[in-house]
């Protein structure tokens, strides 16, 4: 029977859960990196052995990308930090760019390639499986960068989606700046926000070229040019690789939220966790529900009635929901109240598998042979 590995990044360390394919009984280790903020994790199964990554930020030593080749029993770091801005990288005010957090770690298509999204807003690329990273200058030097603002949680490239069959084609998203795409491996980037609303801009500027507060983007499992986007206000789908977007929020209890997840194998199937609004960052009426579409957003259904709590006044952040890739795919989410929930049957049944953790910021799960 296959094993299950679940990595939970929190504001005060990393916790690792293991289970079998049934995903009902769990064993936990941690906290790894106690008292460090863990805003990104990655389970990379491309090598002979799985490699785990954790983007952890220490208030004393700064950010670091840690890696483990023994499922978290031990961790290695790069001296002086795996990700650092070069000396000539400056912020719009002319001050030196200094890494604050690593918000995203994503595997590339090519062997050894790992992408990282950071705060301040930048993307880095590794070709040695995460041991060292180089700044993607084509995006850092983009003329729009001078006008990117910060979202409530900071300015961060939180989504990096390499095309599954074309390593030179990558979609990325920043809050607040919007969606950007490259087709030449990162040398040039184009803003791709047509149809996505920026409700906080006045009048005619509601649909600008860039400046949207995109919260998360996920790629369809079978149609790689189909994408699902959770915006600060609005939920969207693209059928042309992000060149244009259409509203699919009708049918949801709220168009505000952070998370967006797609099924690992089923087409047109996506999940989001609606939040009441920006002023009340908890589920609508305090009812924790995952909403699912199986028809590309034409309709939505709530999951968890009678199983998930009806008094849940915590947010589920953009990377605090995920799916594993078992034959019967599992869903997971973690709240800022420290609770972690699992459904081993794509939302039909639910179980709280951990509670009383620090704020959950990131969850990633995978099956292991």
Give structural attributes:
369 residues; four-stranded antiparallel sheet; 41% strand; Methylamine Dehydrogenase, Chain H; mainly beta
Can you put this structure into words, describing what you see?
- With 369 residues, the protein is mainly beta.
- The protein has one domain: YVTN repeat-like/Quinoprotein amine dehydrogenase (Methylamine Dehydrogenase, Chain H, 7 Propeller), CATH 2.130.10.
- The protein contains one helix and 27 strands.
- It has one helix at residues 137-140; strands at residues 3-10, 13-20, 27-32, 37-44, 51-58, 62-68, 101-107, 114-119, 122-126, 134-135, 156-163, 166-175, 178-182, 190-191, 214-219, 227-231, 235-238, 246-247, 256-262, 270-275, 290-293, 301-303, 321-323, 331-334, 340-343, 351-354, 360-368.
- The strands form seven sheets. Strands 3-2-1-27 form a four-stranded antiparallel beta sheet, with no helix packed on it.
- A hairpin with a 7-residue loop joins β19 (256-262) and β20 (270-275).
- It is globular and about 55 Å long.
- How does the overall form come out from the CA principal axes? globular
| CA(first)-CA(last) distance | 8 Å
Query: How many individual helices?
Result: 1
Rounded to the nearest angstrom, the radius of gyration is 19 Å
- The CATH topology annotation reads as Methylamine Dehydrogenase, Chain H
Number of domains: 1
Question: Structural class, from helix and strand content?
Answer: mainly beta
Oligomer: single chain
Please identify the top-level CATH class.
Answer: Mainly Beta
